[in-house]
Design brief:
The protein is α/β, with parallel strands linked by helices. It has a single domain (about 30-295), classed as 3-Layer(aba) Sandwich (Carbamate kinase), CATH 3.40.1160. It has 9 helices and 16 strands. The protein has helices at about 10-25, 45-60, 70-80, 95-120, 165-175, 195-205, 235-245, 250-265, 280-285; strands at about 30-35, 65-70, 85-90, 90, 125-130, 135-140, 145, 150-155, 160-165, 180, 185, 190-195, 210-215, 230-235, 270-275, 290-295. It has an 8-stranded mixed β-sheet with strand order 5-10-2-1-13-15-16-14, sandwiched between helices. The protein binds adenosine-5'-diphosphate and N-acetyl-L-glutamyl 5-phosphate. Adenosine-5'-diphosphate binds next to α8. N-acetyl-L-glutamyl 5-phosphate binds near residues 102 and 158. InterPro entries: AceGlu_kinase-like_sf, AcgluKinase_fam, ArgB, Asp/Glu/Uridylate_kinase, Glu/AcGlu_kinase, NAGK-C.
Length: about 300
């Protein structure tokens, strides 16, 4: 555990703990989908903090469901093979060889690391891909240009979610397990699809009717062109930020997914800084507002 609280006076610590009580009561039995971005998991101490936070939520009766990313980890593995990742509108162009790498890095490495850390922190995690329990059915994504829909891109084995069957997630939750999900879908011929983890987290939050969707990333939230944090964004403001290019790269699928989830009835959708120790716990269990909140209107 990183000792980021030793400088806080005991009375202040007690106050922070007491502040959590109404939130624990409010969220008891509720589902929180937490997207753990690859960029937010690069520091081992922060990873351990994250695992502890997830276990704490479970112990106080909240149901965390973790969807993890791993973009930088996939990039490192591709580089070792002499390959370099290419992205179009935030999606990795995925040929057959890249798909193999994506599958072994996400399901074999990143997911198992998170499962192990949650166990070390005293929780019971189960790793899943979209194949397990028929969780994520997908088909090849037809990608069109954000600004000119007549332009199409072939991004290879990138998946478009056809359906999510949440029964395996619900069964695990009921049995005190914490699901840790890799964003890999499967198609009609049992072929694998690489799906952006933000897209999976957002869709899963909608299907599970989650209370909250929290997306942990490597920025303080959504920033404007001058680098200022935008604490609150509505659908109309987001359209403007897409149009003027303020939102780009990996932030595109994150915001689109977040907005879809907000429109579909997920009560609260937040993009927060995963590099700040315990940011997720502070967001969920204290009065403090962090990062950017996405609103449907
Ligand atoms: N307006 C914006 N505000 C903040 N980050 C942005 C913005 N537009 C693009 N980005 C980029 O999006 C990145 C986060 O997305 P991504 O790299 O996919 O992270 P993750 O691995 O957490 O999903 C940021 O690090 C930043 O480079
Ligand atoms: C289609 C697509 O882009 N898939 C992503 C899956 C991992 C991911 O989303 O990781 P982050 O959350 O860390 O960005 C990729 O290949 O990088």
């Amino acid at each position: 555990m990183t000792d980021s609280i030793s400088h806080i006076a005991p009375r202040d610590k007690a106050e922070i703990l007491a502040q959590a009580l109404p939130y624990i009561r409010k969220f008891h039995g509720k589902t929180m989908v937490i997207k753990y971005g690859g960029n937010a998991m690069t520091d081992p101490a922060l990873q351990a903090d994250f695992a502890e936070d997830v276990v704490l939520l479970k112990l106080v009766g909240i149901n965390p469901v973790v969807v993890h990313g791993g973009g930088p980890q996939i990039e490192t593995a591709l580089n070792r093979l002499g390959k370099k990742g290419e992205f179009i509108q935030g999606m990795r162009v995925t040929d057959a060889e890249t798909m193999e790498v994506v599958e072994w890095v996400l399901a074999g490495e990143v997911q198992q690391d998170i499962v192990g850390l949650i166990h070390q922190a005293g929780g019971k995690a189960v790793g899943l891909t979209g194949r397990d329990g028929g969780l994520i059915r997908a088909k090849k994504l037809k990608m069109v240009d954000n600004k000119d829909p007549s332009v199409e891109y072939d991004v290879g084995q990138v998946g478009d979610i056809v359906a999510i069957d949440p029964s395996v997630v619900k069964a695990l939750q009921d049995d005190a397990f914490i699901p840790v999900i890799s964003p890999i879908g499967f198609g009609e011929e049992n072929e694998s699809y690489n799906i952006n983890a933000d897209v999976v987290a957002s869709k899963l939050a909608t299907v599970l009717q989650a209370e909250k969707l929290v997306l942990l990333t490597n920025t303080p939230g959504v920033l404007d062109k001058a680098g200022n944090l935008l604490t609150d964004l509505t659908a109309r403001e987001i359209d403007g930020l897409f149009a003027d290019g303020t939102i780009s790269g990996g932030m595109l699928p994150k915001i689109s997914g977040a907005l879809d989830a907000a429109k579909a009835g997920v009560n609260a959708v937040h993009i927060i800084d995963g590099r700040v120790p315990h940011s997720m716990l502070l967001e969920i269990l204290t009065d403090q507002a962090y990062g950017t909140m996405i609103r449907s209107h």
